[in-house]
Amino acid sequence: MQKIIIEGSKRLSGEVTVSGAKNAVLPIMAACILNEGENTFTNVPDLADVQTMIKLLEILGAKIEFEKGNLSIDSKNINKWEAPYDLVKTMRASVLVLGPLTSRFQKARVSLPGGCAIGERPIDQHLKGLKILGAKTILDEGYVETSAKKLKGGVVPFDVSTVTGTENIMLSAALSKGETVLLNAACEPEVVDLANVLNLMGANIEGAGTDIITIKGVNGLNAVKDYEIMPDRIEAGTLMVAAALNQSDLTLKNCKFEHVGTLAGKLIQTGTKVTRFNNSIRVQGTDNIKSIDISTLPYPGFPTDMQAQVMTLMCLARGMSIFTENIFPQRFMHTSELRRMGADIKLIGNSAVVRGVKEISGAPIMASDLRASASLVLAGLAAKGKTEVLRVYHLDRGYDKLDKKLEAVGANIWRESY
Ligand code: EPU
User: pLDDT per residue over 148-206, tens digit each?
Assistant: First the structure.
């Protein structure tokens, strides 16, 4: 295993380029199941989760090449419809193949994702949507099995706003007979990126980015060429918090301000300076971080995927902040590690009360999930002394060489095997 070691308290400055979005590329890769051709993408991040999705699609029969951000997926020979437990257990987003496989083969067998470090993550809304589109679903030995005649359109009212649920049903409906309307659909930019790709393949989808999405089923989809994956707004947000620490000054290249607007607004309230340019954002930290409250919500509200990182910043703010986690109420595994570094955090139900301290100090700490590990790396950057972040495979699931990017702008950060 690898650990990341950080000698903290260094001021960062310079330019960092944001990579393509994990949560956009994964459903887009699953979308390739719906055609029988060679699809090509650019700006694809080099992540463990992308490698897992490559493995999964290869098991299904796809031919894939991935080099330097360019991904090609030839889906012509896909001839299997089972996603095995071994892969699904390492990446819950594997469930995104359920809809496309059911659509292509009128059947699918996908391992049910198990427990997760960030709490309960049911897929009942995915299954509800598939049933409305005419699929039968059963649970057999830990696998969800679907069977259907050709899927047909229908009205799918989601009980909760679900990102991958919306994507799975959008993928299922693209080739179904008639019209599908998704109500209370997720509005996240990654849903829009998926709809854009599907429309370029020949689908007829309107309303992505709003809570009502209409999909008129078409008879077939073509391969898409050179589609550029949207920039990762959570990586951008993580780097924005890095800039807010230690009075740093970072300019993020290849990012969309409108995707991080809620976070930018919050950072500005802390006293951090945020300047918007065309396709780039400059963030300058302050020596007097003010406290703010955070309540996570579906997009365009404050993203749950940024809660842990902003909590690291608030550990060093003046005064008290309250974090309320409305999406994943138990997503607080980072707090006990931050406490070991000297942070003052109390958990009450789905809230965390953070009282800012003057400084935190380096310590050996353990990453528990992807965004928690990002918050711990940030804490290491801010801390006095040496921090060792263990189990960084969590970080590598969703950040493309974050340590290298931070090193290039002045962080004293390196990896060691243990
Ligand atoms: N939910 C249900 N039933 C369902 C689906 C979801 O009750 O069938 C609930 C969940 O328990 C949660 C809420 O709905 O309380 C929202 O969950 P959602 O389905 O939107 O989450 P997801 O699609 O599984 C995606 C991202 C997550 C991100 C969440 C929320 C991908 C691959 N994953 O997960 O990303 O936290 O949306 O924005 O897009 C990450 O990147 O670190 C990550 C965890």
Answer: 999 999 999 999 999 999 999 999 999 999 999 999 999 999 999 999 999 999 999 99
DSSP, collapsed to helix, strand or coil, labels residue 404 as helix
Give the pLDDT score at 118.
82
Of 26, 263, 325, 327, the one to substitute when testing ligand 1's pocket (max ligand atoms within 8 A of C-beta) is 327
Identify the three-state secondary structure at position 173. Answer: helix
Instruction: Provide the H-helix boundaries in 65-211.
Output: 85-88, 98-105, 124-132, 163-173, 189-201
What b/e readout covers 274-291, taking b as 16+ CB neighbours within 10 angstroms?
beeeeebbbbbbeeebeb
Tell me how far the alpha carbon of residue 304 lies from the centroid of ligand 1, in angstroms.
9
pTM value is 0.98
Q: Where are the beta strands (DSSP E) in 70-183?
A: 70-74, 82-83, 107-111, 136-140, 143-147, 155-157, 179-183
Q: How far is the CA of 127 from the centre of ligand 1 (A)?
A: 15
Q: How far apart are CA 20 and CA 410, in angstroms?
A: 23
pLDDT of residue 119: 80
Beta-carbon contacts of residue 67 (< 8 Å; ≥ 6 apart): none
Residue 97 has pLDDT above 80, yes or no: yes
The alpha-helical segments, DSSP class H, found in 32-123 are: 48-60, 85-88, 98-105
Q: Which residues sit with their C-beta closer than 6 Å to ligand 1?
A: 23, 26, 93, 120-126, 160, 162-165, 186, 190, 304-305, 327-328, 370-371, 398
Alpha carbon distance 407, 399 (integer Å): 14
pLDDT at 403: 98
Among 249, 263, 375, CA closest to 313: 375
Residue of 103, 110, 215, 100 lying closest to 150 (CA atoms): 103
Residue 15 has pLDDT above 90, yes or no: yes
Q: Are strands 227-228 and 38-42 parallel, antiparallel or unpaired?
A: parallel
Band (pLDDT 50/70/90 cuts) for residue 327 is very high
Tell me the catalytic residues: 116
Chain centre distance of CA 201: 24
Two structure tokens written together for 104: 């292509």
pLDDT in tens, 264-320: 999 999 999 999 999 999 999 999 999 999 999 999 999 999 999 999 999 999 999
